[in-house]
Structure formats: C-alpha cells, structure tokens
Request: fold
Amino acid sequence: MNPTLTRFRHWLMRFSKVFFGALGIILFIAVVLSFTDVPYYAYYGLGMSCEPLKSDPDLIVVLGGAGMPSPDGLIRCYYASEAALKYPKAKVVIALPYNEADSLEQLDMAAHELIVRGVDSLRISYEPLGFNTHSQALNIAAAHSTLKKTGSVLIVTSPEHMYRAVKTFRKAGFVKVGGLPTFEKPPDAEKIKDKEKSRDTRVKSLALRYNMWSYLNYELIVMREYTAILYYKIKSWI
Reply:
C-alpha cells in the first residue's frame, strides 16, 4: 500500500476520533445545561443588555427579523404597536428588506399589523433597502440625521438580537438608543401540569416534555447570536 495513503488514513482516523469526541462532549454539556436555567438566562441577558431610555423616543424602529408573515415578525409588530400607542409623538420605521418578486408586500403587511392596532398610518415609514442590521442602521441614520445627536431611538427586535442591534445603531451615530425586546409570554405552567388527583392526561413534570427542548433551542439561538456579535466586532460595525 502507498505509504502516503497509509499515513493519511491514520491521520484521518485520529482526526475523526478527536472531532467526534469533542462533538460528543459538547452535545453532552448542551443536554446537561438544558436541564438548568443557564440557557434562558443567557438569552434573557442579551435581551436586557441595553439601558432604558431616559426620555420618550422620537423614533421607533421595528427590525423585520424573519419577515412577514412569521411568528417573529408578528410579535415584533405587536410590541411596536404597544410602544407606538404609549408614545404617540414618535415616528415608526419598519426596517425590512423588500423582495423584488413581491415589492413592498411584506412591509405593507407589517404596517397593516400596526394600523389595525391603532397606529396612525401617517406615522409609519419604511426602510426597505438595508439587507442586515448594519446597513439598516446606516440607512435610518441617513434618513433621520437630525435625531442622531439629540433624538431618542427605541429598537424593537427579538431578545437575542437586542445587544447587537443597539450597539449597531449607536455605531451608526445615534447617541440615545434603547430597546424593547419581544419576549414571548407563555401560558401559566400550572395550567398544563397534571395535579396529583386529576383524571386528565396532563404531564406531571415540564422539565423533559417542554423545558429541555426549549432550552436546547435557546442554546442554539444564543450561540448563533454570539457568532454574529463576533462577526460584527471583527467588521467594526459595533
């Protein structure tokens, strides 16, 4: 047998053992952590990482996320409408890349969600040209340059995205930037747990049936976001 090929096979076997061993350890740690509150607190920490605004916002920016319609897009519109009603003098910007196939349809859908909840359509404008948080922040800063030094901006986005979004808008020139993280509001856990004397088929413990899988998902979300944060820091966007 060719000596070079033999050496390569031995190297490949050693590499495979190390790689899959390390992967197994990572998976084991991930499963163990899924039975703790660590993944949620990491997720929660990203959402609550920004300081609250000390004054009413002049501009409410809704970052589009997964687009419309989607659970992520709908919950952002819900929180944005609540903020717009709370701060009636603030303008609202929907930042969502337009699709060449459907033009501004997704942005119109997001605006419709705000309007049906009581937000005046005259307060709403679009930012359809940015394709990521960095370019969206630069475009909004250019369109609202008078607010960069003195105005307040409220960012509405998902909890894991909040840290990066606020930092990006500050890097774009806005001095006063706050965040409104779109945390989900799950049902009361006691409503779906089985009681000792109940005759229905509810589960007695939520740890394996629900919490473990939710926390594994939080782990993936947080790791993906930490990777994005590192990329933004390398690019000097935050």
In short: The longest helix spans residues 3-33.
